[in-house]
Automatic annotation (TrEMBL):
The lineage of its organism: Archaea, Methanobacteriati, Methanobacteriota, Stenosarchaea group, Halobacteria. Homodimer. Pfam families: Aminotran_1_2. This is Aminotransferase. It comes from Halobium salinum. Belongs to the class-I pyridoxal-phosphate-dependent aminotransferase family.
Length: 365
């Protein structure tokens, strides 16, 4: 199957070659520090015996799986620790498409581009359902396009790129659609710690054998390079997912898993609260500057992305390159996320220079 390389890499490479200073607002790489307990755990692990440097159990360290299971109120046997949330989504989508229940994958528009990429790679067929102006998904629109060919419904809440948070009613209705058509609902909740609305509720609150929840620690602990994620599968699907995981990756990194476990057990809630407060301030300052630039924009209810539309400046790759060269700000083209936001640009507010970038945009426009 043919599939396109995500545009993230092209934008980052172009920005790196620029002849001027550029504020990078392309990828969701957190700029705040990881939990102290995680660093302490790594230091301690360095002195571990040789056996601790060997393969861990393929499905993940038992202690980490049990910690996740307790926090998510599930059976530890349902948890597979993966190489980031990206692999968790891959395993869930693969499981959906290999069940002989159809080849259609329903996605939102706009959409995180790795989902349609995985769909193509796995031999699926993508169908896109537009969201409303605030990024909210109407489950009735999903039901309208669903059919016996639907194998999978993929949603991301809190959402990248719109910042929308899907409430519990929406998740219940989406699970109902999945059950009706013998599909799997895959709920990517990697931004679950970044809910500013108070409306987020995990899809695990929905009692269904037709939903898989994926998440990870890349964003919440500011450790995108550690590549530790997980998926929570229904009992009857977990063994096949574990086999695919073993054949593709054998396991996730043992030291990284142990460090995450140490951080989960040793990090107070204040760590996450302070991060949310900091991001709220960034979002407010950034959107204030967008007001000054006369832009239309989204105010995220979750995650840390802002989409903006500037009059007469559509979100093409060419215009992203112009912004890099002429304003010194690197964002993502809206066309990377689907047709419905092709006039928009997406900015990741995970840089201490977000205020500076906002001023540059306001001056430029």
């Amino acid at each position: 199957m043919e599939y396109d390389e995500p545009l993230f890499f092209r934008v980052m490479q172009y920005a790196a070659r620029a002849d001027r200073d550029v504020v990078d607002m392309v990828s969701g790489n957190p700029d705040w520090d990881a939990p102290p307990a995680l660093r302490d755990g790594l230091h301690e692990y360095a002195d571990a015996p040789t056996e601790a440097f060997q393969y861990p159990p393929s499905e993940g360290l038992r202690g980490l799986r049990e910690e996740i299971a307790e926090r998510r109120n599930v059976d530890a046997a349902q948890v597979v620790v993966t190489v980031g949330t990206a692999e968790a989504n891959y395993l869930a989508m693969a499981r959906a498409l290999e069940r002989d229940a159809g080849d259609e994958v329903i996605l939102t528009d706009p959409v995180y581009p790795y989902y349609p990429g995985k769909t193509s790679m796995l031999g699926g067929r993508a169908t896109f359902v537009p969201v409303d102006d605030r990024g909210r998904l109407d489950a009735a629109d999903v039901r309208e396009v669903a059919s016996e060919d639907t194998a999978c419904i993929v949603v991301n809440t809190p959402n990248n790129p719109t910042g929308a948070v899907y409430g519990p009613d929406t998740m219940r209705e989406l699970a109902d659609v999945a059950e009706e058509y013998d599909a799997l609902l895959v709920a990517d909740e990697v931004y679950d710690h970044f809910d500013y609305s108070g409306r987020f509720e995990s899809a695990l609150s929905v009692d269904s054998d037709h939903r898989v929840v994926t998440s990870g620690f890349s964003k919440s602990m500011a450790i995108t390079g550690f590549r530790v994620g997980y998926a929570v599968f229904p009992h009857d699907l977990v063994e096949a997912a574990k086999t695919r995981h073993m054949l593709v990756n054998i396991s996730a990194s043992r030291p990284a898993q142990q460090a995450v476990l140490d951080a989960l057990q040793g990090t107070p809630a204040e760590y996450y609260e302070e991060t949310r407060d900091m991001l709220r301030e960034r979002i407010d300052a950034f959107t204030d500057a967008l007001d000054a630039a006369g832009a239309e924009y989204t105010t995220p209810d979750g995650a840390f992305y802002v989409m903006a539309r500037f009059d007469g400046f559509p979100g093409t790759m060419e215009n992203v390159q112009r912004l890099i060269d002429e304003a010194g700000v690197a964002g993502m083209p809206g066309e990377a996320f689907g047709e419905s936001r092709s006039d928009w640009l997406r900015f990741a507010l995970v840089t201490p220079r977000a205020d500076e970038a906002a001023e540059r945009l306001a001056d430029y426009f």
